[in-house]
Amino acid sequence: MTTEPLGRVWDALTATSGAATVYQRLHPESRRDLYAVLDRTTMTRTLKFERVWRPTDSLPSLVQSRAVRIEAQRSRQGTRMSVLISLADPAFTDVFSVLASDVAAAAAAAEDDHQATAALFEQLERWRVLLQAIREDGLSPEFRRGLFAELHLLGGLVLEVLPAREAVEGWTGPLRSHQDFQYPSCAVEVKSTVGPQPQSITVASERELDGTGTGTLYLLHVSVDERQGGDGESLNDSVAAVEAAVAADTSALTLLRARLALYGYHLHQRYLYDEPRYSIRETGLYRVEDQFPRIIERQLSPGVGSVRYKIAITACEPWRAEDAELQADLAGGGTETTE
């Protein structure tokens, strides 16, 4: 399996000599024809997917973005089709490397060319929406704190127990899932707050703290001190620490960077995240079960939905859990429960 980040593949192609256009096959274990392509004249980076063309096929409709140019071509003989996904704006080089890795992996995993084409365009559409949402001023203060808190859990408790790839795959916050972490025997919803005590957290829907089908559901509250300067940890520091923790597994590192991009953290905007700095004031881990203070879907009257509410942290104290309990569940040693 090709696990080397695509950015490094293109960097290696840049150093080659000879033809104006150079190629490297990706995912040689797959039957899908995928290539990293470099036009050495313009230094344009392209991901190429090639497949058989059938008379019943039609060229897909293509939606462009500022960062990525997409083309579909038929061969002169009319027997092959190629989809070319190229970097259009060098400012997005790092994002494009993650995008191309994600798209190529989805196509490579497909069982046939038809499924690969569908998977490729499904991933491209997801990335198009993501790229359109990139703000020039980066993540909002709330999202920065949220990412810091989620990386605190991932880089600490989770990676202490699980292999890197498994740990990162379970980080589902960037995928807008109901809980921020989902593993076979447990799930964790992470909330961060800043400000004086007493504190409360905001629950965004009736599904966030609904443990149906999750195994053991935990709530992790991370109270942070946020300030310019000082001895705290920047968001860039937090990202770098988790990257270093998974660096030995290149597939985990590639997936981590894809999830970071989906969250809205992009390498070309790193300069935005040297400040503020965060210090953890305290954390609280709670088992969400029984009479835990929450609103869940089955409690709602017909026609009521999209509920948003607040919970006072002090009201959660009877359900406080220890880190070791969560780690036992992560390792598969806990007792699975279904509400």
Describe this structure in words.
With about 350 residues, the protein is α+β, with helices and mostly antiparallel strands. It folds into two domains: about 5-130, no CATH class; about 140-330, no CATH class. The protein has eight helices and twelve strands. The strands form three sheets. The protein has a five-stranded antiparallel sheet. Strands 6-7-9-11-10 form a five-stranded mixed sheet. Strands 8-12 form a two-stranded antiparallel ribbon. A hairpin with a 6-residue loop joins strand 1 and strand 2. The protein is globular.
Summarize the structure.
With 339 residues, this protein is α+β, with helices and mostly antiparallel strands. It is built from eight helices and twelve strands. Strand 2 and strand 3 form a beta hairpin.
Multimerization status: single chain
The main β sheet shows up as:
5 strands, antiparallel
Query: What does the average pLDDT come to?
Result: 87
Low-confidence stretches: 334-338
Question: What keyword list fits this structure?
Answer:
single chain; 339 residues; alpha+beta; 5-stranded antiparallel sheet; 5-stranded mixed sheet; 8 helices; 12 strands; 30% helix; 24% strand; globular; disordered C terminus
Q: What layout of secondary structure does this protein have?
A:
Layout: H1 6-14, E1 21-26, E2 33-39, E3 44-52, E4 68-74, E5 80-87, H2 93-108, H3 113-132, H4 141-158, H5 164-169, E6 181-183, E7 186-194, E8 200-203, E9 216-227, E10 233-234, H6 235-246, H7 250-263, E11 277-287, E12 309-312, H8 323-330
Parallel strand pairs: 7-9
Antiparallel strand pairs: 1-2, 2-3, 3-5, 4-5, 6-7, 8-12, 9-11, 10-11
